[in-house]
């Protein structure tokens, strides 16, 4: 029996402009990237999301072909899918949202299919905290491990609901500025301590091209981003990262600090592929061998031997 | 016989304001931090710099007590020492220069003492490229290994002289934005390739709280910054880092990619101590045991084991 992973999040169409190129409408959304990333693992992944009747059958088929269960993806007639348009600036690390059309997301009430209410691992993507809470409450008791993604907008406007969600999860993944906002601490070490006290046993702080930091069990692990010759489109990097983490967690029976470290490594590697092409193209194409090859390189990138005798000072 | 390290750079007084505290006049300057960092190693370090007659005898004595040779530090009568005043903002990663008084630096002509013209390793701190070149030309032929620090200001205004200096060194240490400016490449991987072609076999890109990347011999090594509970004063972090690198390089007979990796680790650890107090205080106080302890922790921070069988996907 494969372990079950339930992913809840957005499915969307994106318009993206970078210094190199521009696309008007390509498949996007957090849950899409997360599910595609987790399809690299030997697990049973179910998706909960909402789409409009403009959503291409071929895009849904793409997920089905990878054995992603889309029973929980509700298609609303007469409405349009969530649409996001963004522009990346020269450094590719900052972007401007040009347009956000919530469309079907506006009245989204998640409905977790019966068959995934006992999922071992639940990945709650970046959504309104009320929606996140509704999905969490539909589960048969608390899943073995719950991962939460969120962002500054929800901290600004729905803090108390967000706090309730945070109190119920095992791992939160946020970026450095969001960690500082959530904790009101500048030092990330102190920020993580405060966030632990809010509920999550593990905190992963995402720093984009600068990598990620894992805090938990009184330990810290720091991983760089895998260095890329040329970033073409950063969209979906964070979601591929979350997908890699969720995939590793669902693919194991024991979840601990070491498992989470491996999650970060897989997540970083999957994200490094994602950014090498527009949209989901590179993530779709990546093979098990190319992932393994990059993990091996990743290890060499950060490894050093410390021998007191050799390196006497 | 100990190996010789020649350090050329500024000695200064700093006024520093942070969100936590403020000091009006404390010992600073790149060469000061570099020399204090290298004093942790079993090498023979000589300093070339310039100071005014306002420079406290006790500050010079502090270096002498640590066996730093200050024969090459010229004291100019009737003039004041280099003075820098800066203010750090909330995030401690950006600062504003409030005041720069070049004073003795304005007409600085370095004079490398005869006894250090055969130094194995030369650390050329951030100075006018013309001054850097003069010092380099005073050496008895090319030293075994030359490290260069520079900054965007010299790239803007003295590019051709800077290019000449860069063509003569083995390692350049610059931050990510400077690497991009120097190479006109956004990708740091591509930037390093271009900079290699300009001369330096090794390139270290400093990213402050996000760590550092070493490129050379077709290999890459990425190290995070050592995470600190509370940064009190970032002044001198980059120079302590450069001091750690120079110290490791001068303390060994074989300089290669592995040595440079250890240089980055020592440099990062020394920088992590420096930022924990104002000015040079923490760097002065650090012991060999506390350095070793932090290096051991550093290794645990970044280490992961990748076993294909355990982590099958």
List the helices and strands and how they pair.
2 copies of one chain form a homodimer.
Chain A lengths: L3 E5 L3 E6 L4 E7 L1 H9 L5 E9 L4 H9 L3 E8 L5 E7 L6 E7 L19 E4 L4 H9 L7 E5 L2 H6 L1 H8 L4 E5 H8 L4 H11 L3 E5 L5 E5 L2 E5 L13 H14 L6 H18 L6 H5 L2 H15 L11
Parallel strand pairs in A: 1-4, 1-8, 2-6, 4-5, 8-9, 9-10, 10-11
Antiparallel strand pairs in A: 2-3, 6-7, 11-12, 12-13
Describe what this molecule looks like in 3D.
The structure is a homodimer of 313-residue chains. The longest helix of chain A is centred in the C-terminal third of the chain and has 18 residues, at 257-274. Chain A has a single domain, classed as Ribokinase (UDP-N-acetylmuramoyl-L-alanine:D-glutamate ligase, 3-Layer(aba) Sandwich). With 313 residues, the first copy, chain A, is of the alpha/beta class. In chain A, 36% of the residues lie in helices and 25% in strands. Chain A has a 9-stranded mixed β-sheet with strand order 5-4-1-8-9-10-11-12-13, sandwiched between helices. In chain A, strands 3-2-6-7 form a 4-stranded mixed β-sheet. The model of chain A has no long low-confidence stretch (mean pLDDT 94). In chain A, helix 6 (176-183) crosses helix 7 (188-198).
Low-confidence stretches of chain A: none
The helix/strand class of chain A is alpha/beta
Largest interface: A-B, 50 and 50 residues
Lateral arrangement of strands in the main beta sheet of chain A:
5-4-1-8-9-10-11-12-13
Instruction: Give the CA-CA distance, first to last residue of chain A.
Output: 54 Å
Give the CATH H-level superfamily of chain A. Answer: Ribokinase
Main sheet makeup of chain A? 9 strands, mixed
* The CATH class of chain A: Alpha Beta
Number of strands of chain A: 13
Rg on CA atoms of chain A, Å? 19 Å
Provide the β-strand percentage band of chain A.
Answer: 15-25%
The structural domain count of chain A equals 1
Oligomer, anyone?
Answer: homodimer
What is the CATH topology of chain A?
UDP-N-acetylmuramoyl-L-alanine:D-glutamate ligase
Can you count the helices of chain A?
A: 11
Shape of chain A: globular
Question: Overall mean pLDDT score of chain A?
Answer: 94
How much helix is in the residues of chain A?
25-40%
